[in-house]
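@channel sequence for tomorrow's demo:
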Amino acid sequence: MSRWIVTAIAFLGLLLPGAFAQQKGKEHTLKGKVTEVGKDALTVNHGNIEGFMGAMTMPYKVDKVDILSKVKVGDQIEATVYENDYTLYNVKVAPPAPEKAKK
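structure tokens (generated this afternoon):
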């Protein structure tokens, strides 16, 4: 009997963490302008993300904190965001738009 209990506990120990882990939802592309660079997040003013959320400004955690030293206020970024996970993944800074030549 005790052998069965030990086996059952071990099996549950393998299953339970996965049952409570938050699953990433559908993938979306976020495009927006950085309005603040925090110590562990970027605040981004982004457009509508079709099928996920409307246009807004909000802070997002980032998957790689080293991006926080590369991004500055005013940068246009593109990143991947998942439903059920408000973290920015694969953040890329868009190159600045070329200035129009004066006539």
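heads up for whoever presents: The domain at 27-93 is CATH 2.40.50.320 (OB fold (Dihydrolipoamide Acetyltransferase, E2P)).
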